[in-house]
């Protein structure tokens, strides 16, 4: 990655971007299904996709959720010498945290753990951190250290280090979370990683973009400092944010076969790489699933796997543009549980455009103009 710095020095006045490959690993749900434990897990730790979008933010706490279908993670390093961790790049939160060697929970035993004593650049912050999940929590403490993302070294970055973690975390491939939302959302007043990248001039443009591969385990990428034209076709639709806290935009309506089935008159949605599904209010999601031929079963909306090719498109109308999700994109197939749609109940008026949406649309997060850019992913 030293080439990154050489390239930036040579072309200081032009585009300088840094790419972090994302791996698409086995999800917690897939692991549990293989072990025959999914039904027990689902009942014990019900999915609450709106947990991290609570309106109240207390110092030292942050809301998260137990999304068993998250699949994408990238590698960062912390400390000197560097210690590597798998993290979810999450546009729906703002803090960075990883497990620590002081964590005795079963969940931590399945993950890489940071050892502050072996890093010459670590400083203890002296404050505690509590992250509330849909069920359970993570507790720990805060510190400062060098965080390296795609070859970019962010010095004195505040990080959370877990001492206890909720049991469901043991089934997740990722070790921790790297939040990419706005600093106003950050717990304990911690400056997010990307904000420090901008402040230190490590990126040439105050934006990052996300490409999620639909099929292969490799190919997905987060690009810091710009846009990669290799991952989209056509023009970019720029959508102004309606709230500069999350990456929140206004959706005009949702249609199936030209008929409005949800979001009539407009609704608010968050473009969130840290949520696997497209999530909305229960009545709206039920209506969409009904229109595409899905039947509710044990918390999922199931369809006949043989009907995917004939299932109708679901179209999100945003800022005067149509963003269409075909059946092949919104249906997920499991060898153990058949086919289910990627539309999930949220129990709130807020929508989440998660990975099901982002796999179809290359997503650009522009902090300079406070906009989201969407273009057809290739």
Molecular structure report:
The chain is mostly beta strands. It has 2 domains: 2-211, Beta Barrel (Cathepsin D, subunit A, domain 1), CATH 2.40.70; 230-377, Cathepsin D, subunit A, domain 1. Helix content is 14%, strand content 41%. It is built from 8 helices and 28 strands. It has helices spanning 2-10, 28-34, 38-44, 106-109, 193-199, 282-291, 327-330, 355-358, and strands at 18-24, 61-63, 72-78, 83-90, 96-99, 123-132, 137-149, 152-164, 176-179, 207-211, 220-224, 232-240, 243-244, 247-251, 253-256, 259-262, 267-271, 278-280, 295-297, 300-303, 314-318, 321-325, 331-334, 338-341, 343-345, 351-353, 361-366, 371-377. The strands form 4 sheets. Strands 3-4-9-5-8-7 form a 6-stranded mixed β-barrel. A 6-stranded mixed β-sheet has the order 13-14-17-26-18-25. A hairpin with a 4-residue loop joins strand 3 (72-78) and strand 4 (83-90). It is globular. The protein starts with a helix and ends with a strand. Mean pLDDT is 87; it is low at 1-7, 9-15 and 56-60. The active site is at residues 90, 272. It comes from Eleginops maclovinus (Patagonian blennie). Residues 72-375 form the Peptidase A1 domain. GO terms for molecular function: aspartic-type endopeptidase activity. Shows particularly broad specificity; although bonds involving phenylalanine and leucine are preferred, many others are also cleaved to some extent.
